[in-house]
Every structure is written in C-alpha cells, then in structure tokens.
Write a structure and sequence with these properties.
Strand content: under 5%
CATH superfamily: Heme oxygenase-like
Distance between the termini: 43 Å
Number of domains: 1
Helix content: 55-70%
Structural class: mainly alpha
Shape: globular
Number of strands: 0
Order of helices and strands: HHHHHHHHHHH
Bound molecules: pyrroloquinoline quinone
Largest sheet: none
CATH architecture: Up-down Bundle
CATH class: Mainly Alpha
Amino acid sequence: MTPSQSSANPGLEARLRQIGAERYHDKHPFHHLLHSGGCSIDQVRAWVVNRWYYQSRIPMKDAAFMSRVEDSALRRAWRSRIEDHDGTADRAGGIMRWLKLAEGVGLDPDYVASGRGVLPATRFAVDAYVRYVREEPLLAAVASSLTELFAPAIHEQRIAGLLKHYDFARPETIAYFQHRLSEAPKDVAFGLAWVLENARLPHEEEMALRALTFKTEVLWAQLDALWGAYVEPGRIPPGGWQPGEGLL
Ligand SMILES: O=C(O)c1cc(C(=O)O)c2c(n1)C(=O)C(=O)c1cc(C(=O)O)[nH]c1-2
C-alpha cells in the first residue's frame, strides 16, 4: 500500500509502512505454519493460550493511555478501543470472542482466562508494551499501535487459512478475527492521522518510527517464544502450558 493522497506527511507514512513490510509478524514462520494448516491441535492451543495474554492486556494498555490524555476529544476517540475488547452492556467484545475460540479448540475458557500456562517470554513482551504505552511520550504510545495498519491483511489470511484447514474453525469460533476487520481500520485511520499530524520535527518522526519498530518486536518475540516451546526445539519452560492441561 502506498500513502494516501491526503496524507499530512507522505514521507513519514511511507517509512512507517516500510517498517511493516519488513518486520510485521505476518512474516514469522509460526504464522505460516498456522495459516497453512501445518499446526497440530496442541500448537493451535498453545497459540490460543499465549495470545490470550496479549488480548487481555490490550484494553489495559488503552486504559493506561487514556489515563494520561488531557484532551477530551482524544480520549473520546480512543474509548471505542476499550469497548471493542471489553464489550458493552448489550454487546459482547473481543475478550468474549477470544474465549469462544478457546472453547472451540477444546480449552476450558476459565483456564485460558486465568492466564496460567502463558510463556514467560510472552508475558515479558506484552508487559513491555503496556509499560511503554504508560511511560513513553503520547506520540510514541499512539505510534506503537500502528502495527494495526498491517493487521487486516493477516486477519484475512488467518480467517481463510483456519476455515480451510482446521475442523474447529467455524464462523462462531473465529468471529474474533471477523470483527477485527472492521474495528482495526477505524482505529488505525485515527491513529495514523494523529501521528502524521503530531510528528512534525525530525526527532518526532524518529520517535514514531522507533515506536512502531518496538511494537513489531513485541509481536515477533511472542511468536519466537511459541516456536521455541512448541515447534523447534519444543522446550517448554517451567510454567508453560503443557499439552493436555486446561482442556474442557
Ligand atoms: O492478529 C494479529 O495479528 C493482530 C495484530 C495486532 C497488532 O498488529 O498489534 C493486533 C491485533 N491482532 C488485534 O486483534 C488487536 O485487537 C490489536 C490491538 C492492537 C494495539 O496495539 O492496540 N494491536 C492489535
């Protein structure tokens, strides 16, 4: 994708997109294995258990972000991210949908929601993201969410790959990804416009680029952890989910 005509800073937008082209986790071998039907059911379960930790922390990092924002218009624009994950009084959110996926692959949703079995490296990577958004300048915090520019393409691949290759995949079990197809573009249109508007000076542009790079590393590190524990060499660290644990 190339920067849109209306971009406030096409040069910066192109450099942000280049980071995705080079570093986004769609290039990770674990995703290739998952989307091509090469994962065993236990490898899929390990992914669901670990990715839960990311899911559960996303609304917490968005709440941490909002707690720092003095501009009520920015808080209002950000608020829907929390509702997308936590749901509202009359609408289920992404957290519930992730637990439907957990059930679909034969895991007890209470086990998954307990966070037991999450790999140490997954926890460290995700906690680093939450801390980053809590502590770094707002520009870096917003820019770190821009990996979502690249998420719809991977969600499309995942929906098609899971439906084609795995018995557990049905519209109800993979609804999480279907919903993200409309949620992520809304979030990222706002986030990208905000970053392009607010990163004007060279050091601000550098900050935005560094933040997006950092975030690609947060995502990549989670898949490296999964690969090492459940694919090759298959060394599950103490405390990591063991096949057979937490099943329905
Ligand atoms: O499945 C994926 O590959 C993927 C990637 C990302 C991302 O790029 O950070 C997010 C999501 N999914 C996602 O579902 C999601 O809600 C989300 C929120 C955020 C964020 O940083 O605020 N990233 C992502």
